[in-house]
Design brief:
Number of strands: 6
Number of helices: 30
Largest sheet: 6 strands, mixed
Strand content: under 5%
Radius of gyration: 30 Å
Shape: globular
Length: 595
């Protein structure tokens, strides 16, 4: 009887100590307090109590101190055989949510399995999230195998996370689609994960097509789905589709979170209607730094530098502190509008006024600004004084400026250095080939092309997309695959005749071939943007705007030709190339030939 009484007292005391520790952890809001509670846990003899330890790990995770907790939980003295799946899941989840220690989530998952603690359906979403952050496809496949082994491959939440994981791993998109197609049940999260995955790898056309399938399946999308669809529209430059998506959001009553509003702003800005983006921004009740930077960046892309600067100053005036991304948009605006002196002042203010240390991207913006303004030597001197090593992108910017502004010897020298440091980067060879073509050194150009062929390198083909009746059409240089190919090339010839009558002279110096002038003109006429414009002229009513998206920087000849086309055919033509927007109207371009 006495033993039973003692046992009851001991149990009651343990329960009281347990409840005391749990209460302390519930109110813990600092790491210093956590260490005191740690001592209390040890003093109370609860160092192997799974309930207390799980709460301890969760609290440590909230305080960003999971390393402290795990060193205690998995020390040499710890009896991990008493631990359960809830405790392991808490630790794994904490590491999966960190930005730089996701691999530790996998380490503790292995400890869990090796310690004969069975994972449950809550374990794998955390493990798969960690795999997604690491981006290792083989690791993801290995975890997928464990999911099947433990029988969780039919769980919708696990499968959704697996789709996301595969989408985040290089080359894993096909595996993501296979998992998606084999899922016994799909919910809105499943569709969103796959649609977002397509956007992440640049398969935006597939993303839009899958969204249409989602509608046909009768599954209502949520705001996360719509953010992904808008991202796809942005990537494709599909303004009309983006407008339809905006209407669909309103019609379906989908919650317009700040993130969704930001996505709408970004879509309109990058699809050519920056005024609509600005209007949406003005109507927002709550704005984040992303809202401001999206509009600033959009104005920059459209060459509206003074407006971008004014908005930046307005942002500061409202008490929103600029971050490094805001300064990227601001410096880009100065670059695209030729505002060199303003760009210099803002670059200095980053450190002096806002204590933001410039990154390589900010230095790149400054080099780009000098180069666009024709200050090639100043750009070169700026690079030499940079406190960090210039990356190849910065050097290629300088080389392109050397080519554009006639500093060919300097460009040749820098490109040769770049080739020595990056012997397998095809764009370096293309730049040198361009320089030799402009110098009329055809033999050297030929040798460069032969070197590229030996290394299996190919120049990225130019392509242009155009949206018509909610369909996306893509043209490549010399494309003859379109069903209207015959009519398109006839229209290109007509365009050429009318442009020449208006004074157009082809810029044949850009054709990188040692051929006669007539053949060079023919090569220029096959450029993808001219084919896309011809297609638009054939299939849209007279006087309506034409919008196209080019994957590369628009060449000098196509830029010149488009100015003439806008005047001859009385069309506004909006071109988004890799660098910015060009609004062609009445024979003029918004960039003022500055791009």
């Amino acid at each position: 009887m006495q033993r039973l009484v003692k046992t009851a007292i001991f149990t009651a005391n343990r329960r009281e100590a347990e409840q005391s520790c749990l209460a302390l952890l519930q109110g813990c809001d600092a790491v210093s307090k956590l260490s005191q509670i740690h001592a209390h846990v040890l003093k109370s003899g609860l160092q192997n109590n799974p309930l207390v330890l799980t709460k301890f790990a969760a609290t440590a995770s909230d305080l960003k101190a999971i390393d402290y907790a795990s060193s205690f939980l998995f020390s040499g003295d710890a009896d991990t055989h008493l631990y359960d799946s809830f405790l392991f899941n808490t630790v794994i989840r904490a590491y999966a949510q960190t930005s730089h220690e996701k691999h530790k989530a996998l380490c503790f998952y292995n400890v869990m399995v090796q310690g004969s603690v069975l994972p449950n359906k809550f374990t794998y979403p955390f493990v798969l999230k960690a795999c997604a952050g690491i981006g290792d496809l083989n690791l993801g496949k290995s975890v997928h195998g464990s999911v099947v082994k433990f029988g969780f491959d039919a769980d919708v939440h696990v499968c959704n996370t697996m789709v996301h994981m595969y989408c985040c791993c290089g080359g894993g998109i096909e595996f993501a689609r296979k998992v998606f197609d084999e899922m016994p049940k799909l919910d809105s999260v499943s569709w969103s994960a796959m649609i977002g995955g397509y956007v992440r790898v640049g398969w935006s056309t597939d993303s839009v097509e899958l969204f249409r399938e989602m509608q046909m399946a009768g599954v209502k999308p949520d705001e996360i789905t719509m953010v992904s669809v808008l991202s796809a529209c942005t990537d494709l430059g599909a303004l009309e589709l983006g407008k339809w998506v905006e209407s669909y959001i309103e019609k379906e009553g989908i919650h317009k979170s700040v993130e969704l509003c930001n996505a709408l702003i970004d879509m309109f800005a990058k699809c050519g209607n920056v005024d609509k983006a600005l209007k949406l921004f003005r109507n927002m009740s709550g704005r984040t730094i992303v809202s401001w930077t999206s509009v600033i960046d959009g104005l920059a892309m459209h060459g509206r530098g003074m407006e971008a600067i004014a908005l930046f100053e307005e942002m500061i005036g409202t008490g929103v502190a600029p971050d490094d991304v805001a300064f990227l948009g601001l410096l880009s605006a100065c670059s695209h509008s030729g505002l060199v002196e303003k760009g210099k002042r803002y670059f200095s203010s980053m450190v002096e006024k806002f204590q933001i240390v410039p990154k390589i991207e900010h230095y790149g913006c400054m080099v780009d600004m000098f180069c666009r303004a024709g200050h090639v030597k100043e750009a070169s001197e700026f690079i030499q004084k940079m406190p960090i090593e210039p990356n190849p992108i910065v050097m290629r910017t300088l080389i392109s400026a050397c080519h554009a502004h006639g500093e060919l010897k300097l460009g040749e020298s820098i490109t040769k250095q770049l080739i020595r440091s990056e012997p397998m980067q095809e764009s370096n060879y293309v730049l040198l080939s361009n320089i030799y073509a402009k110098m009329n050194h055809w033999d050297k150009k030929t040798k460069i092309r032969e070197a590229m062929d030996k290394k299996g390198m190919k120049k990225i083909p130019g392509s242009t997309m155009i949206e018509l009746d909610h369909e996306i059409y893509e043209f490549v240089a010399g494309d003859k695959s379109h069903r209207q190919s015959k009519e398109i090339y006839e229209m290109v010839e007509e365009m050429g005749r009318k442009m020449k009558k208006a004074g157009y002279v082809p810029t044949t110096s850009e054709v990188l071939l040692d051929i006669n002038e007539e053949d060079k003109e023919d090569a220029l006429n096959r450029h993808s943007e001219k084919l896309a414009i011809a297609f638009a002229l054939l299939n849209t009513p007279p006087g309506t705007p034409i919008r196209i998206v080019k994957n590369l920087r628009v060449c000098d000849d196509c830029h010149s030709a488009t100015k003439f086309i806008s005047k001859v055919y009385n069309r506004e033509i909006v071109v988004r190339d890799r660098n910015r927007f060009h609004h062609f109207k009445d024979g003029m371009c918004s960039c003022r030939d500055f791009w």
